[in-house]
Amino acid sequence: MSHKHIEISIPANVAEQKSCPLGLEENNFDYSQRAQWLRAAVLGANDGLVSVTSLMMGVGAVKDDIKAMLIAGFAGLVAGACSMAIGEFVSVYAQLDIEKAQIKRESNNTRVNEQEAENGKLPNPFQAAIASALAFSVGAVMPLLAAVFVRQYKVRLAVVAAVASLAFLVFGGIGAKLGKTPIKKSCARVLIGGWMAMAITFGLTKLIGSTGF
């Protein structure tokens, strides 16, 4: 008996999909694509938390009045959010100009520039500024909410420090999870850095306040 052979052609893209499991595709995902917005969000939230918490702890080192602490924290929130937004806008706009100039050097066709911008490949300064301001505000509002409900001076300082420490761990974990980096190391860096900022601000302010300056 003779055997008949039937040849079936399989498209290359289908073959590649079958040869590449779903888990492997996820492992091959380029997480550097998240770098721009992740950096702005994590830095903004962490900076807001560290700055406002340290500012409130510094004021609390020399004043036990809750009003003074809350006003200082709110002022730090507004000023910090504006500073983050302006700084991120200027930085990303400079990056945008550099990338546009590079595209023009590579091609004299203006349609290429429009197509790149429409596809979202070029950075957006306005989005970066808004994201940074919102992220800073999210981090900064946490110590304010922690302090507003506690009237006793020493308890208020302890609650603010505890809430900030927990938030440090959360932000560190979120950043590590999204960026696929070691969670323990990320949390430890953020937590230790936050503690150092609070301790230095509290200690120096307490020292200056005790000398009468």
TrEMBL record:
CDD domains xref list: Nodulin-21
Segments crossing the lipid bilayer: 66-86, 128-150, 157-176, 188-209
InterPro entries in UniProt: Ccc1_fam
Keyword Lipoprotein listed: no
Catalyses which reaction(s): Fe(2+)(in) = Fe(2+)(out)
Family listed: Belongs to the CCC1 family.
Protein name: Vacuolar iron transporter
Species annotation: Quillaja saponaria
